[in-house]
Amino acid sequence: MVSTALIIITPSHSEANAASNKSDDDTHVAVEKSNGKSNFAKNSNGAHVAKGLGKDQVVGHKSLLKSDDLYKNTIEVEIYIGYSLLSTALALPDDGKVIAMDIHRKNFELGYPSMEQAGVAHKIDFREGPGLDTLDALLLAEYVCNINNVLATDLRIEINQVSILKRNEL
Ligand SMILES: C[S@@+](CC[C@H](N)C(=O)[O-])C[C@H]1O[C@@H](n2cnc3c(N)ncnc32)[C@H](O)[C@@H]1O
After folding, report:
1. 25 or 46: which carries more pLDDT confidence?
2. pLDDT of the residue at 91
3. Number of domains forming the structure of the chain
4. Who has greater pLDDT, 40 or 117?
5. What's the superkingdom here (predicted)?
6. Do residues 90 and 40 make contact, with C-beta atoms less than 8 angstroms apart?
7. What ipTM was reported for this prediction?
8. Among 3, 45, 51, 120, which is most exposed with the fewest C-beta within 10 angstroms?
9. Are 4 and 143 within 8 A, CB to CB?
10. Is residue 4 in a domain?
11. Using alpha carbons only, how large is the chain's radius of gyration in Å?
12. 2, part of any domain
């Protein structure tokens, strides 16, 4: 199932912008027309972004993504109300997915209305249960833990995520 891993490192926003080599056009926000109430909009890559944020805030860790296609599938363990889950889901393209794992569904459900309001609920595939068991079921536990053991000692890394590709996407 796993073919490769891409680790998202989040430096300061200015460094992120420099690394991304993106122009203002890349972060242009097109206002979503759905209900007129959403606080979110889509940028030129189809990713949801909060309205009213400056360029640096809009790009966030997505600025390091060289290809949206490489980051369509991600996993996150320990969701709680989903602060970082929402951030990831917003950054993914519209057909992207986050497999979100938490031992307590009720925690995830506390934040779920925010995912719906942000228009990203369709990107989230929630799995209830102990993270390691869920990762094992996906044949990922050893793989993810080995990477995280290395990343946990790197002070430059604020968030690390493992992006996964399905076999049929190789
Ligand atoms: C500190 S919170 C996570 C915060 C979250 N990353 C955020 O950005 O808001 C910890 C969460 O981990 C969950 N948790 C604890 N042990 C777990 C396990 N073994 N597998 C999966 N989830 C677990 C708890 O239910 C709780 O919701």
Report:
1. 46
2. 80
3. 1
4. 117
5. Eukaryota
6. yes
7. 0.96
8. 3
9. no
10. no
11. 16
12. no
